């Protein structure tokens, strides 16, 4: 008798909040952590800034094993993760230790650091002070192929694998105080746009993603454990691993493995001081002496030694994972762990590995494929020769139809050839056994242990914007642009001009954009964030402008704009359906223009390697001692699109839809976690480094947990102490130290045109404010009698140095910009025009004032405290086309001094946020807007101004979203003005033009038959070339057919052949 099992889900949809956001739970949650989250934790300000708090200090009992709070605080300070005695470190010692209410110098009589640390490391009294996730040291054994039938594999043991069992780490994490913030039930986040009422899906956290929803649904569909009625939830594991150098000099390195819990919001996980990072192991490297063992094998050539060494490195990596994925973890993966959660309720917790973030060399180790083989992508089987066709329909289809599925049978057969028949690891028989797909003969332990339970080891290898874009594709494009400059006549002068321009790019924010001090073209020790600054500061656009011949300059400007646009969209912390469609369309346009750049622009120049590249190549050759004479010649260099990193750009839309936004799993999170290890390293003896690093990690973890258990507050402040409350729009100090007597001030600057009508304008502004008139765009002229009614005591106002402007970001966080007239004085306000061509006005803050004032109108005077900004206005260039369609930045210039509104006063409450204005270097400097000479309107005694500025719309993601009308967290009024002023330039017009039923972004399937932009280079339409015809999508599709059909068919056959091995694995 057939039975039908009907499962009823108790779904729940919350009401829409003020942002138009609601949650859709597939099952009613039993625990909601967000209701305990203070609004102060959503802001980049001080959560402890309680003004006027006179509450008495709390006194804590000393946590075990410390005899008193004095020693506890001192040991906590010592293990706070810093190896340098910096100013902040000393300030922390004074504030957190010496000035604490419970500090008593008598407690330090007979104090011994070594004894205190020994008591912390050892539990001599038998009382458990640690949690069951301590470190274990073991050895790892691998088999070295001997290349002989009659000989068995040669076992080789690598000692010193330090790790913590994953099950114990999970138990410890759910017993940690931070578990109170764990999301246990996934949900969808929906957005109802207040402008038109349409609804869209929101993509941000891992616990709101499809991969978690699918996993939760799968768990509920499987039979319950016998006799268990507990709620079943998921512990979402996010893995990070990356080898790192521990010191600037020497060869000391470590290969840490980190685990984060996706149950925790990414805004906490991404902070290296949040305690969310769980260091679970140090992966060992092959010792140097293994080369002696390999060289002693019979019939092994020099090439064969390298192949065996690479093979052993793969074997070691997966042998470590075989230990980590032990029986306990596999059992928990299948049956779950019964744990008490933060709310005191017992639940059955199922671990699930969702993502593994690593750079490309580690990705190929995890995926057990060849490094840059014929099919180098760890997620799909698209051949390397077809990577250059990124963005085409065939490319998008091939990614989906040729997803990797592990070739278990082929790998087992290849290993038989190696270990039983004595074949070499990369010999013809082994390669034939493995077939297409760039597989290697190493048994993938993720598949071996967890494949039957549903883990897809290829799907979990998510994109990595830091290594694959900022240090990958963008670095490659930037490097080739430098080669093109060197190839120009007078190229050295063009490079010098470029370096000079970069040094003049203004900084922005609190380290958002830093000063380019060195020669950028030399790329000396540039990290990922430096390349991001070069790109996101969009300084590359005005910096490169005019350096190339006119027939190529426009094309390069468009390409740089679209690359910055794609980068901004790919790094958004919050996506919706519309932004993902937008990202997909921009990727197609960028792909098309990259191909045109390669064929049109790059082909017109004879590019060679940079001086730095040549020096590096020669240094590497000299190490081998066999450098041929011709190696000193300069080699040619071409722009190469056939790389995995360019190919990976096509996976972002699909990955974000499935796993959430890229900032949730970027390798930058793991890189930040390295800071603790690098801080611990100088405290070690440099011997058996992993063991000592593990000891320091344990100390810090134990101190944090005993502090939480004992109620002692953390000693490290997470935010600046002086940060103002984020609830206000802005904060200006009320200091009266810097007085400005108005008439004295004017006498000292009699000839300065910036001060023309200074006092009348100030009083007009005060009248607007006190009479509550519309001061944004008002032509009302006050009489002298009205101005005389404004009373300013002693005709004195007060100047302050900074103002902090708070704003809500597109992802509904609270942030602030610091406005400083000397360093960061540019601001943006809402346009006051009725039908603006541009949504914002811009101004440079010359001074920040506050004053007491009132109106003498015959009645009882009412004093008012007013804050005002003295500004110099900039206006958009009317004859300049900007926006996404023409791929050009908005441009502004100072209002001419002859205009009565060139200078004025502004209510700080009208400031939206700081602006980043970059000089349009190609337009030069001049005195067209303000007569030459020194002026308070010019910084640092300059005698002239830049004629034109480019508006930095890509300076950060929030700024970019203010020009798209798609910022979910932005006020509806600002979004409406942006929509009305941008018109057809807005992303929504692009989204509306997309056929959603065919879009790759919405359906995860095949995209359009052709790009929405059929004109070739955006912004280059005015100079259409006849050769544009050769780049039609149809002919490129045919070229794909001709060049790649045989390889692609082979990959498809290989994929279908191995699909039967694990046909239950979830598809991407």
UniProtKB/TrEMBL annotation:
Pfam families: Plavaka (PF18759). It comes from the Eukaryota. Residues 1012-1068 have a biased composition (Acidic residues). Residues 1001-1068 are annotated as: Disordered. This is Uncharacterized protein.
């Amino acid at each position: 008798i057939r039975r039908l099992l009907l499962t009823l889900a108790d779904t729940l949809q919350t009401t829409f909040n003020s942002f138009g956001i609601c949650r859709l739970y597939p099952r009613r949650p039993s625990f909601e952590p967000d209701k305990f989250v203070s609004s102060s934790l959503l802001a980049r300000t001080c959560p402890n800034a309680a003004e006027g708090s006179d509450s008495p200090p709390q006194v804590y009992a000393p946590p075990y094993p410390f005899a008193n709070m004095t020693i506890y605080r001192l040991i906590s300070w010592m293990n706070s993760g810093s190896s340098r005695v910096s100013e902040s470190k000393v300030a922390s010692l004074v504030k957190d230790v010496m000035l604490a209410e419970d500090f008593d110098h008598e407690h330090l009589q007979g104090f011994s650091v070594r004894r205190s640390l020994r008591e912390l490391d050892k539990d001599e009294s038998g009382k458990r002070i640690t949690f069951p996730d301590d470190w274990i040291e073991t050895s790892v054994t691998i088999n070295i192929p001997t290349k002989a039938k009659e000989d068995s594999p040669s076992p080789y043991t690598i000692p010193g694998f330090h790790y913590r069992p994953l099950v114990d780490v999970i138990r410890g994490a759910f017993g940690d105080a931070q578990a109170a913030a764990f999301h246990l039930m996934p949900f969808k986040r929906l957005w109802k746009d207040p402008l038109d009422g349409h609804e869209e899906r929101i993509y941000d956290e891992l616990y709101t993603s499809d991969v978690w929803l699918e996993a939760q649904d799968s768990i509920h569909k499987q039979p319950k454990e016998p006799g268990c009625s507990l709620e079943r939830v998921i512990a979402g594991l996010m893995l990070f691993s990356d080898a790192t150098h521990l010191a600037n000099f020497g060869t000391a390195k470590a290969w840490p493995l980190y685990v984060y819990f996706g149950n925790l919001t990414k805004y906490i996980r991404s902070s290296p001081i949040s305690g969310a990072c769980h260091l679970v192991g140090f992966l060992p490297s092959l010792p140097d002496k293994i080369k002696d063992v390999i060289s002693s094998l019979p019939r092994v050539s020099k090439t064969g030694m390298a192949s065996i060494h690479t093979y052993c490195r793969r074997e070691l990596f997966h042998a470590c994972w075989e230990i980590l994925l032990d029986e306990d973890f596999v059992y928990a993966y299948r049956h779950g762990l019964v744990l008490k959660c933060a709310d005191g309720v017992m639940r059955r917790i199922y671990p699930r590995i969702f993502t593994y973030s690593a750079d490309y060399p580690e990705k190929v180790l995890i995926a057990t494929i060849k490094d840059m083989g014929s099919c180098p992508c760890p997620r799909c089987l698209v051949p390397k020769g077809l990577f250059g066709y990124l963005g085409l329909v065939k490319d998008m289809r091939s990614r989906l139809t040729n997803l990797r599925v592990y070739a278990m049978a082929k790998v087992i057969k290849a290993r038989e050839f190696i270990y039983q028949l004595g074949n070499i690891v990369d010999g013809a028989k082994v390669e034939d056994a493995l077939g297409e797909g760039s597989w290697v003969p190493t048994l993938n332990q993720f598949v071996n242990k967890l494949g039957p339970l549903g883990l897809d080891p290829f799907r979990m290898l998510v994109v990595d914007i830091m290594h694959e874009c900022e240090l990958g594709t963008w670095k490659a494009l930037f490097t080739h642009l430098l080669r093109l400059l060197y190839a120009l006549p007078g190229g050295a002068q063009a490079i010098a001009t470029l370096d000079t321009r970069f040094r003049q790019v203004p900084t922005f924010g609190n380290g958002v954009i830093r000063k380019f001090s060195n020669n950028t073209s030399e790329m000396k020790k540039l990290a990922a964030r430096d390349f991001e600054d070069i790109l996101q500061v969009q300084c590359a656009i005005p910096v490169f402008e005019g350096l190339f011949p006119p027939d190529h300059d426009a094309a390069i400007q468009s390409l740089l704009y679209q690359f910055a646009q794609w980068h901004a969209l790919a790094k958004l912390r919050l996506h919706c359906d519309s932004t993902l469609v937008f990202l997909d369309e921009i990727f197609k346009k960028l792909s098309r223009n990259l191909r045109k750049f390669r064929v049109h622009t790059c082909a017109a120049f004879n590019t060679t390697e940079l001086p730095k590249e040549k020096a590096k190549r020669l240094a590497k050759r000299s190490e081998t001692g066999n450098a041929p004479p011709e190696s000193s010649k300069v080699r040619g260099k071409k722009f190469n699109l056939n790389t995995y990193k360019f190919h990976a750009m096509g996976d972002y839309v699909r990955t974000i839809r499935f796993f959430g936004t890229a900032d949730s799993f970027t390798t930058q999170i793991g890189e930040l976690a390295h800071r603790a290890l690098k801080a611990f390293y100088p405290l070690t003896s440099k011997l058996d480094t992993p063991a000592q690093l593990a000891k320091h990690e344990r100390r810090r973890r134990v101190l944090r947990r005993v502090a939480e258990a004992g109620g002692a507050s953390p000693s490290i402040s997470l935010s600046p102490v002086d940060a103002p409350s984020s609830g206000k729009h802005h904060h200006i100090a009320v200091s009266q130290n810097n007085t400005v007597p108005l008439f004295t001030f004017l006498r000292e600057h009699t000839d300065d045109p910036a001060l023309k009508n200074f006092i009348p304008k100030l009083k007009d502004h005060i009248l607007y404010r006190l009479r509550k008139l519309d001061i944004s765009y008002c032509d009302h002229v006050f009489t002298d009698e009205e101005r005389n009614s404004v009373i300013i005591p002693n005709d004195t106002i007060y100047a302050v140095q900074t103002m902090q402007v708070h704003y809500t970001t597109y992802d509904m966080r609270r942030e602030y910009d610091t406005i400083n007239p000397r360093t960061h004085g540019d601001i943006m306000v809402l346009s006051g025009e009725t039908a603006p061509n541009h949504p914002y006005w811009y101004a440079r803050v010359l001074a920040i004032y506050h004053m007491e004032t009132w109106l003498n109108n015959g009645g009882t005077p009412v004093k008012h405290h007013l804050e005002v900004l003295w500004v110099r206005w900039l206006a958009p260039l009317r004859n300049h086309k900007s926006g996404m369609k023409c791929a050009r930045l908005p441009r502004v210039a100072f209002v001419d001094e002859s205009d009565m509104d060139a200078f004025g006063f502004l209510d700080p409450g009208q400031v939206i946020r700081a602006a980043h204005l970059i000089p349009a270097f190609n337009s030069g400097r001049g005195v067209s807007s303000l007569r030459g000479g020194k002026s308070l309107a010019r910084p640092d005694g300059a005698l002239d101004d830049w004629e034109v500025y480019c508006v930095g719309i890509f300076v950060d993601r929030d700024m970019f979203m203010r020009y798209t009308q798609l910022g979910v967290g932005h006020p509806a009024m600002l979004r409406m003005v942006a929509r009305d002023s941008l018109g057809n330039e807005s992303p929504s017009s692009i989204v509306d033009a997309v056929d959603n039923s065919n879009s790759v972004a919405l359906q995860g399937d095949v995209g359009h038959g052709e790009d929405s932009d059929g004109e070739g280079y955006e912004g280059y339409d005015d100079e259409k070339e006849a050769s544009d015809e050769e780049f039609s999508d149809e002919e490129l599709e045919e070229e794909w057919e001709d060049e790649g059909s045989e390889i692609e068919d082979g990959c498809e056959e290989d994929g279908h052949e191995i699909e039967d091995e694990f046909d239950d694995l979830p598809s991407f």
